[in-house]
């Protein structure tokens, strides 16, 4: 009877000393000793969410355990961003590097300064220095000689990983400026190189490895990316010789090459240079339109069947201007 007459805002005491106060929108308990605390609707919802989260987290943790009860931690996917290869164990070993060697028939090269050679010095140059590869290399470096217009770098590679790796790209890092205009050397014609399948135009803002296709007139620059059409892989211990052509018609450039290698551990990069120094190539010196070297240089020498002789840059420039 007493219970039937309770209103929504009334209170009653239970047998254990708990007083219940209730309404349709707010119901809570408190003990008569004032130790109880109110629990509102928002608090109740938060408690339910925390409990559900704990249950889900516990289930995921349990499911992540393997059959032996050990936690099987998630492994991130292989990083596809290129990063430098470890110096002690690169995926590809660079066994040797030579060049650039001129692709021009006369194996042309240039010096930054004008070199005036007497007849005796020129005779010694032709008879003692040029035929001796070590002596010529020393003379070449000492005078800052640079291959002109077109050259080839030859790189001997060997697979150094435990599995097959793939060279997916070659990058060029370059610094360029005006062409050399000191002294021009042109040897006796020996025929141009004709074996390079990869080439870089150093005059481009962002050089890429072009495919060079063989034609009746020699190798042609196709403007197609080599690695879009060709695959270069290396098995463990496998050797490969890579010939890289470079050209420039406007600049003198110092540059290095960078292999991009796809491996099981991700994409790695490897720098290639000339024994710790950058490679170099120079365009021909600026000259009158239609002129060819030695036009534009301050001094020049050319090799004939009977040896080396001075050449006349002014006469070459005048000849080009008359065309």
Question: How would you describe this protein?
Answer:
The protein has 323 residues and is α+β, with helices and mostly antiparallel strands. It is built from 5 helices and 20 strands. The strands form 4 sheets. Strands 4, 9, 14, 16, 17 and 18 form a 6-stranded mixed sheet that branches. The chain starts with 10 loop residues before the first strand and ends with a helix.
Task: Spell the H/E element sequence.
Answer: EEEHEEEHHEEEEEEEHEEEEEEEH
Q: Major sheet, described briefly?
A: 6 strands, mixed
Mean pLDDT: 81
- Return Rg in Å: 39 Å
Helix content: 10-25%
As residue ranges, the low-confidence spans are 1-36, 56-77
Tell me the number of helical segments per DSSP (H or I, 4 or more residues long). Answer: 5
End-to-end separation in angstroms reads: 127 Å
Content-based structural category: alpha+beta
Find the count of extended strands (DSSP E, 2+ residues).
20
Strand content: 35-45%
Q: How would the global form be characterised?
A: elongated
């Amino acid at each position: 009877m007493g219970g039937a007459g309770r209103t929504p805002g009334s209170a009653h005491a239970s047998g254990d000393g708990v007083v219940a106060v209730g309404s349709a929108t707010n119901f809570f308990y408190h003990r008569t000793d004032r130790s109880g605390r109110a629990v509102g609707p928002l608090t109740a919802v938060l408690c339910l969410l925390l409990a559900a989260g704990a249950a889900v987290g516990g289930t995921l943790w349990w499911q992540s355990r393997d059959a032996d009860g050990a936690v099987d931690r998630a492994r991130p996917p292989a990083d596809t961003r290129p990063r430098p290869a470890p110096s002690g164990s690169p995926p590809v070993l660079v066994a040797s590097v030579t060049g650039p060697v001129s692709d021009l028939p006369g194996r042309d090269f240039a010096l930054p300064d004008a070199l005036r050679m007497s007849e005796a010095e020129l005779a010694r140059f032709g008879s003692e220095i040029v035929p001796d590869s070590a002596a010529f290399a020393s003379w070449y470096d000492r005078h800052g000689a640079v291959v002109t217009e077109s050259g080839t770098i030859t790189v001997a590679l060997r697979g150094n990983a435990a599995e097959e790796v793939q060279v997916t790209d070659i990058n060029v890092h370059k610094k360029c400026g005006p062409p050399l205009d000191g002294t021009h050397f042109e040897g006796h014609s020996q025929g141009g190189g004709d074996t390079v399948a990869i080439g870089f135009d150093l005059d481009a803002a962002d050089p890429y490895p072009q495919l060079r296709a063989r034609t009746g007139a020699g190798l042609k620059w196709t403007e197609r990316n080599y690695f879009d059409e060709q695959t270069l892989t290396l098995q463990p211990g496998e050797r490969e010789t890579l010939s890289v052509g470079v050209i420039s018609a406007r600049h003198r450039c110092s540059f290095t090459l960078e292999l991009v290698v796809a491996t099981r551990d991700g994409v790695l990069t490897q720098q290639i240079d000339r024994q710790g120094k950058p490679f170099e190539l120079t365009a021909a010196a600026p000259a009158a339109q239609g002129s060819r070297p030695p036009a534009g240089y301050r001094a020049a020498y050319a090799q004939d069947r009977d040896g080396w002789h001075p050449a006349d840059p002014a006469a070459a420039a005048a000849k080009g201007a008359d065309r």
